[in-house]
Amino acid sequence: MASTIAEIPREVLETFARSDEYHNSFLLRPDEGLEYASEHIKENGLMHHMSVPASQGEFLKLVVLAIGAKRVLEVGTLGGYSTIWIGQGLPEDGELITLEISEVNAKVARENLAKAGIRNARVLVGNANETLAGLPTEEPFDLIFVDADKQSYPNYFLEAKRLVRKHGVIIIDNVVQKGRVADGSFARPPAIGVYPNDSTVDGVRTLLKLLKEDKEVEATTIATANEKGYDGFLYAIKL
Fold first, then answer.
1. Is 54 a domain residue?
2. What is the pTM of this model?
3. What is the C-alpha to C-alpha distance for residues 23 and 15, in angstroms, rounded to an integer?
4. Separation of alpha carbons 144 and 159, rounded Å
5. In a domain? residue 29
6. Is residue 2 part of a domain?
7. Residues near 201 by beta carbon (within 8 Å), at least 6 away in sequence
8. What is the mean pLDDT of residues 143-151?
9. E strands within 67-189?
């Protein structure tokens, strides 16, 4: 694709945010744990804008409930905001493992999880590629959510496919990136928002190329327009 995708006008972004807020006012209940986590992430200087929006957090919770998940793996903890949403959908005997490269982030996440009453989550600190490689397949996961460094998306997907059960769900965030992934002229971009270099685009493009030839999964991209702007996530099921 040769055409250049222009920046989304501010008034359009404001419409996205206003619509998201309006729907959330009807569909999302107040939650002290999540509110605390959001503020605690900001207070500790973490990149709070990289946490999932509340509407997507609720979606993750609904997926957990819909498939009856008991074991969930998350790649990319940050401050644990999405982790709380996922944990809220798990039964008391469920298990949630979340991977984070930063000990600082992990500390904040553990504090947030404790405050929210999520007792069945473990935060593992280290390089996610190495940690994933060490996880066994004997106890497969029902759901795997990936929201971490985009250049590693191809490997994260292959590991997720190895670790998820048959008919289990893999969700990979930030695969649209304001339309830049589909923009053929977007090869060496300047620093823009949370997508600072071409590796974030290239990682998703490589992932999509893998999926095109992969007969072991069915997948689709679900584009989103919300308080964080225009993006989307990949939803895949292992056959």
1. yes
2. 0.93
3. 12
4. 10
5. yes
6. no
7. 150, 177, 180, 181, 186, 189, 195
8. 97
9. 71-75, 95-100, 121-125, 141-146, 164-172
Half-sphere exposure of 31 (CA within 13 A, CB side): 21
Q: Within 10 Å of residue 12's Cβ, how many Cβ atoms?
A: 13
pLDDT confidence tier of residue 6, bands split at 50, 70 and 90: low
Chain length of the chain:
239
At 64-121, the pLDDT tens digits run 999 999 999 999 999 999 999 999 999 999 999 999 999 999 999 999 999 999 999 9
Domain that holds residue 204: 10-238
CA distance 74 to 90: 13
In the chain, the number of structural domains is: 1
Q: What is the CATH number of the domain that holds 100?
A: 3.40.50.150
Give all strands of the β-sheet with 141-146 in edge-to-edge order.
121-125, 95-100, 71-75, 141-146, 164-172, 229-238, 217-226
The two tokens of residue 122 are 């473990």
Neighbours of 88 (CB within 10 A): 19
Would residue 5 count as lying in a domain? no
